[in-house]
Write a structure and sequence with these properties.
By secondary structure, the protein is α+β, with helices and mostly antiparallel strands. It has seven helices and four strands. The chain has one domain: NADH Oxidase.
């Protein structure tokens, strides 16, 4: 599979089969995703694989949008994407390197999450990145340490459906040239 085929072929999957996700395959996905670029190579993203009773408890942390709870209940595994606070976008003296302040960590988390999803797709798995959940409740269920922040949840499993690609904007709408 080429990089283009992987990017164009990947879809957000919200329905999964009952087949569990192999821990060996998950570890290979994480190994691949570890090559995602990060601020000054800080590699602040950490993953938590959630299954069983913890996953069921996590699925209840979706009062904001219950649909994500249903997705998590259906998925055999949910990946919690966390970042180590206070490292990304900073200089060694603790000052910010850019006007983005500490928000640069979200950029790194987004890159790593997409790398995870593409690596999962290459392995035949489906994923969907979810951001609508009760962060404080989810952090409590996952026992997230003080030095980390929960950024996103990714449902992962064997796809039960193969949705068509939604309509995309054309290059003319997305690209501007300047001289």
């Amino acid at each position: 599979m080429t990089a283009k085929e992987c990017i164009v072929g990947r879809r957000s999957i919200r329905q999964f089969t009952d087949q569990p996700v192999s821990h060996e395959i998950l570890e290979d996905i994480i190994s691949t995703a570890s090559f995602a670029p990060s601020w000054k190579n800080t590699q602040i993203v950490r993953y938590i694989a959630v299954e069983g009773e913890k996953k069921a408890a996590l699925a209840k942390c979706t009062k904001i949008w219950a649909g994500n709870g249903a997705i998590m209940e259906n998925a055999p595994m949910v990946i919690a994407v966390t970042v180590i606070k206070g490292r990304c976008g900073y200089e060694r003296d603790g000052s910010f390197s850019t006007v983005k302040g500490d928000s640069w960590q979200m950029y790194d988390a987004g890159i790593a999450s997409e790398a995870f999803c593409l690596a999962a797709y290459e392995q035949g798995l489906g994923t969907v990145i979810m951001g609508l959940f009760d962060v404080a409740d989810a952090e409590a269920v996952l026992e997230i340490p003080e030095d980390r922040e929960l950024v996103a949840l990714i449902a992962v499993g064997h796809p039960a459906v193969s949705p068509e690609a939604p309509k995309r904007k054309g290059v003319a709408d997305l690209l501007t040239y300047m001289n």
